[in-house]
Sequence to fold (450 residues):
Amino acid sequence: MRRIKKNNPIFIFLVVFGLLVFLHGVGATGPLEKFFLNVFKPISQQFYSWGNAFNRSYQNRESQASLNAKVDQLQKEVAVLTVANSQEKELIDENTKLRSQLKFINENNYKAVAAAVTARESLAESTEEGQDLIINKGTNAGVQVGQGVVSEEGLIVGKVIEAKETSARICLTTSPECMLAASVQNQTKTQGITDGDLGLTIKMNYIPQLEKISAGDTVITSGLGGRIPRGLVIGKIIEVRNESNEVWQDATIEPLVNLNNLTVVTVIIS
Amino acid sequence: MFERISQIIILVLLLSLLVLVQFSFISAIPDPFRECNLVLIVLTFTIFFLDLRVALIAAMISGLLLDLMSFYFFGFHIFLFFISLLLAQSILKNWLTNRSFYTLLALMLSITIFYNLFGAAILYLINSNRAVFFLFESRFWVTLAYQCAWSFLAALILFNLAALVSKRIKPFFLEKKSFI
Fold:
């Protein structure tokens, strides 16, 4: 039988690896891990912002720079106006249902925590369309799985799917399997579920055939079944697929912000 | 002793920088730049240019840092790098026994393909609710193609750089002197 030499690098590697997994499992390396993560946090934030700046300049290079800037500016304005418009609509609805205005304002007085995006998880999976974001706030700051994440403009961009002590993972609304309970701002307040489509747009599924929805309608979170409050704007419907032989119809929603350029987000805690 | 400790500290610092560039900078830039797996390229080059021992130390440090920062299960990257390096060592010992550019290229490509297939297979097995098998997803093949292209480019640059600064991989010929 061949004896394994004690100074064999493979043997040493396996011993160290086993020890690391064991110590991590029992939580003995916690303080050390926290120290390293705290040291790396500002550096990774800086690297991410450089990467994002590169991303932006690359995108701008692809089309005419001035046109892009104008479109960006207009998109921001549209986003702000849509949020204001949807809040207005929500306010009217609340009034008609004899709910107090104060309650609505309180509903928008969310307890939130601002976080910086430090990375996109894309090292080895490579099989999923769309990517998750990693932010620099975790359970220590009150972030929990299922909470909604909004952009600077107040539009919902995703939700927390995993949380560590000092960081959290967010799925973007355009990522497949990132599901949100949604409602269309039409007369019947059509309810449905949204999920991402190829990392580019959002789909709203399971809409009954009898519901009347049309392109241009704003889609907001319905506030059902989860930690995400009602009234956060998901996007605008750009296409409705309605086959007469299908039980359900579905809609394609366009997000109102560019999800590739997010650097700072806000997690709505309560 | 002091020299050894300083060597390890420098190695840790360089690898930390490399991991941070991979994790935060490269992940934020657009396709096809985003698909560059810098850590794997460096590890493969290390085993080609130096030896298994140094490559394993580098794999342990970079894998550990990636495991701490990413949201995969702990040990995912360390294990993946370890298996990839074992395969690289086996290839270098049994098939690609010389140290030419073609050797480095073949090594880079085979390790890139293995790393992606093995990593995706592990994630597929763990993530049981995934509907489509990873080999049937177009994104997987696109990423693999980009990574192979980056590996090719990296092999080209790194081999020539190494040949410039070191005599280790330069060809040498035994000249047969003619006495006529």
User: Anything to note?
Assistant: The two ends of chain B are 55 Å apart (CA to CA). The helical segments of chain B are 2-25, 38-49, 52-69, 76-94, 101-126, 138-165. Chain B touches chain A through 50 residues (CB under 8 Å). The mean pLDDT of chain B is 86.
